[in-house]
């Protein structure tokens, strides 16, 4: 069997033609494709503003900047996420902390969040922003998080890098009903791709305006934002310290084309998950549990080796890799990374996250995974565990 990765893009002729068309056009950057892509995402998510950028990492950074995060501020996220969800706080000079996960969904635990807020209030160290991450594409308990946000006065950025096309309480993830800003990633392993790319959504005009500035050098051509009348027709003003986080026209055109198949992609991922659930019923692993309030984008399909199977996680992992199956582990608890260890987080800090890390395996999950490949993955897993 050829190598089976854990995730990969799904590119068709229309995607290719869309990019080629841009290459032959007048604009490779700062043209009509980016606003077109943004409008499509806004419409799909039923949200007022979309700001496309060159990665979700950049989107998280400008989201924090727009919310005014800086030195002295505290930002909280989950340890079971990609490092970017935590790094964005450090980019802004803020401090970062981690809220342990729920053992069933692997998302940030609302119970742990509330406990931590009570303590933080007593010591005067409440977070300014909390960044829940929709692991695998399954929404966090956003209603509960939003009600804590109201009570304790923090902002919420949803890291929905895994979750475009997913729903929570029958509404699209990204509509920001329970958050200030939502961030998506379009890396090739995610649900839709722009090669590299990300996007922030919000319903708040002021936040959208700020993110728009931060993604492009802090420069404005809007007369209302300038400190004085333009010197001439060439004039622009830099009014913030921004970055060049712009998405290119090539990326946006690919995004526009991919958006047309988003629902199809997510439906296909659900078919694959249902098949895994069925095939794995007699294998010693726990299949992903889905909360009834959620419809996951299913970026990942994470199983856990049952401790009573008698097999070590490492052993199972190594044997699957030897069988040419690109299983992966999402994620190493962020605070166990050497960079975070020097910030004084010790082992044992989030016990549920560490227990998860000891058993989790992401099986191959992408739209073009064939039934034959899926059967091969399950056969291997089953024979290893017997
Ligand atoms: C992929 C990912 C990111 C970063 O996305 P990029 O577009 O690669 O910058 C951030 N958070 C999570 C949870 C991710 O999975």
Write structural notes for this entry:
With 386 residues, the chain is of the alpha/beta class. It has two domains: 4-259, 3-Layer(aba) Sandwich (Aspartate Aminotransferase, domain 2), CATH 3.40.640.10; 262-384, Aspartate Aminotransferase, domain 1 (Alpha-Beta Complex), CATH 3.90.1150. It is built from 13 helices and 15 strands. The strands form four sheets. Strands 1-9-8-5-4-2-3 form a seven-stranded mixed β-sheet, with helices on both faces. Strands 7-6-13 form a three-stranded antiparallel β-sheet, with no helix packed on it. Helix 6 (142-152) links the parallel strand 4 and strand 5. Helix 1 (13-23) runs antiparallel to helix 8, helix 3 (56-66) packs across helix 7 (205-214) and helix 5 (110-122) runs parallel beside helix 6. The chain is globular. Bound molecules: pyridoxal-5'-phosphate (PLP). Pyridoxal-5'-phosphate (PLP) binds at residues 55-57, 81-82, 84-85, 133, 159, 161-162, 185, 187, 198.
Task: Summarize, please.
With 386 residues, this protein is of the alpha/beta class. The protein contains 13 helices and 15 strands. α9 (262-279) runs parallel beside α13 (371-384).
Report the structural category: alpha/beta
Q: Briefly, what CATH class of the largest domain?
A: Alpha Beta
Strand order of the largest sheet: 1-9-8-5-4-2-3
Beta strands, count: 15
Tell me the distance between the termini.
21 Å
Helix-strand sequence: HHEHEHEHEHEEEEEHEEHHEEEHHHEH
Overall geometric form: globular
Number of helices: 13
Q: What proportion of the residues form beta strands (DSSP E)?
A: 5-15%
The CATH architecture assignment of the largest domain turns out to be 3-Layer(aba) Sandwich
- The CATH topology annotation of the largest domain reads as Aspartate Aminotransferase, domain 2
| Whole-number tally of structural domains | 2
Computed over alpha carbons, the radius of gyration is 21 Å
How much helix, percentage-wise, in residues?
25-40%
Low-confidence stretches: none
Can you say what the CATH homologous superfamily of the largest domain is? Type I PLP-dependent aspartate aminotransferase-like (Major domain)
Biggest sheet layout: 7 strands, mixed
